[in-house]
Specification:
4-stranded antiparallel sheet; Pseudouridine synthase; Structural Genomics Hypothetical 15.5 Kd Protein In mrcA-pckA Intergenic Region, Chain A; alpha+beta
Length: about 375
């Protein structure tokens, strides 16, 4: 980081009372609403449009007291469909005869509670904590995952120090890893640290000090040894849980992933899989998974974006085939995380080895 940017950063974080900038994280579009509208019970509700007009107005009238703000939140979290396709705009026009379905999630507690969940702590001081997250652990409470999350574990581990930092549902969280992605994640323990880390992740290393690198095992091999995928990402038009490359940038957000091929695994003379290192320039939901699939090389074990590559498993050697079939996670690991400490200015760099299941996969692919 140059001295000018460093001074400006320290002034913004510690020398003013301005609120932190919004953080662009991989989960910013996946925030699940927490409360239902009056009289509208959790579950799926279908309404047939009788007169054309705005969808939010229609649902506000048909949804038994559902507010337009709540409707917008449900649309943004993928809980509303029009004739089976995910709605992307609460103000979209609907036509007579169309069916609008709204999925109201179960209500969750307003404040998460601490739970005794083991944590692999890589670094901790009074300002922040760096965790090596295992696959299978959800980062923060959301619909369907109200308990058993990293936030619940952090509340128990850190106690009152997390209170009020970044919001009650996401205390201290400045970035996220998908449930079945393992690796390094930093969490703020104080308001000042939260503001500083938020600025770092919003900047994504353009001017400030931030390094985020992932190791991915992907099907096939990219068409070049290194490069960048520059393609906007938005919500999939009909699959609620997926993201997609969108041609209209107004319906998506710009996203850039840099990649380099570290190893190519061949069997019977054919390139079956590769080990790829990815560096994030932006942080969108499922970014690496979507961009690798866009290259024609989806992440091994990815249940959302690698479905069309299941036949590749049959081409693997027997040992690797068994490991992939029993993986039950995407082969994606946050291996490197580096940043300037928001309070001390010290440059911190952390590395995480592959977890046992991915190390075993790599060994089988090499064999």
């Amino acid at each position: 980081m140059n001295q000018h940017a460093k001074r400006r950063y320290q002034h913004e974080v510690f020398g003013s009372k301005a609120r932190p900038k919004p953080v662009e994280t991989e989960d910013e579009e996946a925030k699940a609403p927490a409360r239902t509208g009056p009289g509208l019970s959790p579950g799926v509700h279908a309404f047939v449009v009788e007169e054309p007009g705005r969808m939010d107005r229609f649902l506000a009238g048909a949804g038994d007291g559902l507010s337009r703000t709540r409707i917008k939140a449900l649309v943004e979290s993928g809980h509303v469909t029009i004739d089976g396709k995910a709605a992307t705009d609460a103000g979209a026009k609907v036509r007579a005869g169309q069916t609008v379905e709204i999925h109201v999630p179960e209500p969750v507690a307003a404040t998460p509670t601490g739970e005794d969940i083991p944590l692999n702590v890589v670094f901790e001081d009074d300002h922040l904590i760096v965790i090596n997250k295992p696959a299978g652990l959800v980062v923060h409470p959301a619909a369907g995952h109200e308990t058993g999350t990293l936030v619940n574990a952090l509340i128990a581990h850190c106690g009152d120090s997390l209170s009020g930092v970044g919001g009650v549902k996401r205390p201290g969280i400045v970035h996220r890893l998908d449930k079945d992605t393992s690796g390094l994640l930093v969490v703020a323990k104080t308001d000042a640290a939260h503001q500083g880390l938020s600025a770092l992740f919003a900047d994504h290393g353009r001017e400030l000090s931030l390094t985020r690198e992932y190791v991915a095992f992907v099907w096939g091999t990219p068409d070049r040894p290194a490069g960048a995928v520059d393609a906007p990402i938005g919500r999939h038009p009909w699959h609620r849980e997926k993201q997609a490359i969108v041609s209209d940038e107004k319906k998506g957000r710009f996203a850039i992933t840099h990649f380099s091929v570290e190893k190519v695994y061949k069997h019977a003379g054919k390139a079956i899989a590769s080990r790829v290192r990815c560096h994030l320039e932006t942080g969108r939901t499922h970014q690496i998974r979507v961009h690798m699939a866009h290259l024609g090389c989806p992440v091994v074990g990815d249940p959302l974006y690698g479905q069309g590559f299941k036949t590749k498993i049959a081409l693997l050697p027997e040992g690797a085939r068994a490991l992939v079939e029993g993986l039950h996670r995407q082969a994606l690991h946050a291996a490197s995380l580096g940043f300037e400490h928001p309070a001390t200015g010290e440059e911190l760099m952390f590395e995480s080895e592959l977890p046992p299941e991915l190390a075993a996969l790599e060994k089988a692919l090499e064999g």
